[in-house]
Amino acid sequence: MTERPAMDSVLLFGVLGLVGFGLVMVYSASAVYAGAELGDPLFYARRQLLHVGLGLAALWLGWRFGYRRLVRWGYPLLMLTVLLLVAVLIPGLGTRVGGSSRWLRLGLMNFQPAELAKVAFVVYLACSLTRKKEQIQAFSVGFLPHMLVSGLLLVLLLLQPDFGTAATLTILLFFLLFVAGTRLSYLAVSALAALPMAYMLVTGSDYRMRRLLAFMDPWADRYNVGYQITESLMSFGSGGVAGVGLGEGKHKLFFLPAAHTDFIFSQVGEELGFVGATALVAVFGVVVWRGVRAAWRAPDLFGTYLAFGLTALIGMQALVNMGVVTGLLPTKGLTLPFVSYGGSSMICMMLAVGLLLDISASTAPEGAEAGAKVTWP
């Protein structure tokens, strides 16, 4: 009997390194603000430690539960996610913050169903694409049902509104359909059809239009619509090569909004400089590499699709967050996985890592037919 390979320690320690680094940066970015506003410099750091504990439990659950069992749970998980997305829109159930209704109050923390929707959507697509592998190029079987399901999720997300998560799910959909072998003509036509809709969504919303204008020329309205991104650019740029020193950043002192959440990467650039920012990007690169490796060596098609989707989710969200912070992309409201403050993101991303670890430990032996691919080192 062939022994089951050990857990991918490179992937595991890469993620744990990001989580530990995130704890340090959350404290550094939030201590002064929390002390002045809440009277407790450790407020956000302490809560993030709780989030990490819950995230580790989710990682363990994903690892022990096993990805193969999700074949039976993919559709129920999607239905649960839809119900939660509906619940946040109901007055009295959903918690409204800053004009958006995205959270459900669960004891000590607010839970954001949109974060669960990312993982649940990948699981659903992996299940569905595997079951329809023989008919994946058929429009009515391999393409249309996935578009309809994603359309339902997008409508619910846009009603919150959460344009960033909606865009994330759209990219994941096209990526996994492409990986599964859907006809390129279907993808191209649907992408072209989506462009006018995306244009109307952006131009029809005042705050989205303001974000787009801020992205195009943030310095034109430095103290209004372009304030956050210009502060982020100055914060990031002031770090130089080696940074001003851990904990010594100045822009987190009531200048840069969301310094410990969406814009924590700018604090990395300021306090640790180009060297620290590059090292952080490199660790994310290692995590993505190990995720792709797990997908490539998965013993079955479901594991391949699931690993590719979860890896794309982690890598894409990290890339988008860093792109927003450095002014390369319009503001999306997406956190930096494992690093930014936030419980829902931490729990769901760690669950994704647990599933990736299980897939990597279930890889087919070299040359086995199940993988149907060359084994990566």
Order of helices and strands: HHHEEEHHHHHHHHH
Radius of gyration: 21 Å
How many distinct helices? Answer: 12
Count of extended strands: 3
Average pLDDT score = 87
Largest sheet, in brief, is: 3 strands, antiparallel
Strand and helix layout:
Layout: H1 9-38, H2 43-65, H3 70-87, E1 94-97, E2 100-106, E3 109-111, H4 113-131, H5 139-158, H6 163-180, H7 184-203, H8 206-216, H9 227-237, H10 264-296, H11 301-325, H12 343-360
Antiparallel strand pairs: 1-2, 2-3
Record keyword descriptors for this entry.
three-stranded antiparallel sheet; disordered C terminus; 3 strands; 377 residues
Structural summary, described in words:
It is a single chain. With 377 residues, this protein is mainly alpha-helical. The chain has one domain (9-360). 65% of the residues lie in helices and 4% in strands. The chain is built from twelve helices and three strands; from the N terminus they run αααβββααααααααα. The chain has helices spanning 9-38, 43-65, 70-87, 113-131, 139-158, 163-180, 184-203, 206-216, 227-237, 264-296, 301-325, 343-360; strands at residues 94-97, 100-106, 109-111. A three-stranded antiparallel sheet has the order 1-2-3. Strand 1 (94-97) and strand 2 form a beta hairpin. Helix 4 (113-131) packs antiparallel against helix 11 and helix 9 packs across helix 10 (264-296). It is globular and about 60 Å long. The chain starts with 8 loop residues before the first helix and ends in a 17-residue tail after the last helix. Mean pLDDT is 87; it is low at 364-377.
